[in-house]
Sequence to fold (459 residues):
Amino acid sequence: AQSLASSSRKGKRKDWIKLIYASDLTPAEVLHGKAEGDKEEDVDDFFTIKHKSDVGEVEALDKGKEPIDDVELEKWQDEELLESIRGLFITGEDSG
Amino acid sequence: MSSSLLTFSGHQFLRQRLVLSILSGKHVKIDRIRPEDKNPGLREYEISLLRLLERVTNGTVIEISVTGTALLLRPGVISGGLVVHDCPPSRSIGYFLEPIIMLAPFSKKPLNLTLTGITTDEDDLSVDLLRTVTLPHLQPFGISDGLELRIKKRGAPPGGGGEVQFLCPIVKQVKTLNFVDPGKIKRIRGISHAVRVNPQFSNRMIEAARSILNRYIPDIYLYSDVYKGEESGKSPGYALSLLAESTTGAIHCAEAISQAGVAPEDIGLRATRALLSEINRGGCVDRRHQTLVLLMMVLGSEDVGRCRMSEPTEKTIQFLRDVRSFFGTSFKVVPVDSSNPECTQLLYSCYGTGYINANRTLA
Fold:
């Protein structure tokens, strides 16, 4: 599964069908890639260490909408970007 | 019966699994619900949702383990009819209404559901977006006549006190979707509301939104919705909900909710920029409505349904996996334009299961 994630990051395009139906990645990993900090675990060990993420993390709620990403929205203060999407409106040119 | 029992783990994606179970008639067992939590098991709002599902169906059996960390659902038939339900203040009405909207068209009798609680919050779709964006998403599937959401009272968090009435017609079968042309944005609509605060806040949000939007198209109508006295709920709050509609009927939406210490102008700008970001993503379906549309495509008549959308959200990815578990249907998900690497939009297609509403009473 890890090789799949890295290949999709390198490759220009994700193979969505494969990622959705034929991988063990969680939905978050499919979208954002596997977390970098994850250490390789020794599978032969009798005891397995509990993932930090399992305990004490803020619970992910089953939400109807994703929170607004304010950092992402800052780019919309840029006049050029505002102009660049004019083509998506009926009044805009057909340049795309 | 073991062949029709599906098992899942964890509290996440609970609502979609319950919906798929009820529609497919397959029993579902969900275990390991917050087993490591200081307060393990199902939350108050999840129990409330299970009660609501029990009320809109007939013969549903729900078993919850002593610790609340596991549940078994044996679905009955969706009965519909007149139902009243109080939503706890821990979640807004949107949390409860979303799964109900997926089920209601397949009831025995048209659903007439009254829900009370919080009408707008940060986590779930507000009743304004449910009314103006979610319900129109059902129209291409042939669910439209008599479909209505009435906002009788508003209720801001934390007190709530709002009330809505949801009316849904029943259908025999849903139409196959073929929606691949996103069109161009022709109009923008918005609902700005302010309860138990200065009513001017509503106009200030609208002005801020117009300062950005006016450049694009003339057809912009932002409505200031005023609720007074009893109808304005128990807590103060305000919000701006925006939607953009294209020439082909594609709708994209965004909203921003009042926060302590933030001026109404900034809330207005936040909602507006979020809307532009959605318009920029493009596609024929709003991102928060991917699962609703995909579900109706699966239930569509036995033909290939196609829809152009932006990249799937986390919720959508899990939904596609869960749909395959319950209905055996896989989607084909391919880039719309494989020659243009800039284009991230995808074409989702599947062969409908030809789902027929067997609960429907023959008139």
Notes: Chain B touches chain A through 57 residues (CB under 8 Å).
